[in-house]
Amino acid sequence: VHLVESGGGLVQAGGSLRLSCAASGSTSSIKAMGWYRQAPGKQRELVATITSGSGNTNYADSVKGRFTISRDNAKNTMYLQMNSLKPEDTAVYHCNADAWVVAGLYGMDYWGKGTLVTVSS
Fold this sequence. Notes:
Blueprint: E1 2-6, E2 9-12, E3 17-24, E4 30-38, E5 45-51, E6 57-59, E7 67-72, E8 77-82, E9 91-102, E10 106-111, E11 115-120
Parallel strand pairs: 2-11
Antiparallel strand pairs: 1-3, 3-8, 4-5, 4-9, 5-6, 7-8, 9-10, 9-11
């Protein structure tokens, strides 16, 4: 599975951005996808996840009510709509896919290279 993020950039506090993650390769093996972020000097943290089957979503408390994760299965693309952005949202945002390597036996995580989001105050 190959993942490519896009949509990052510089935005003022209170503004919005939409990130995209295009998946290619063995996309039918993907169980769930998610967005993670890593700010300078900090560990990578979960932002939001979405399952492939039911589309169940999960959000970090820090982004609930401001961010929305979604997917377009026909385009093999996942999105993260980010509203009411804050300076503390500044980070490199990475796309993640949890996929089967051998269906029902074991899987692995795939990562994109990331896209930088900078929120100015």
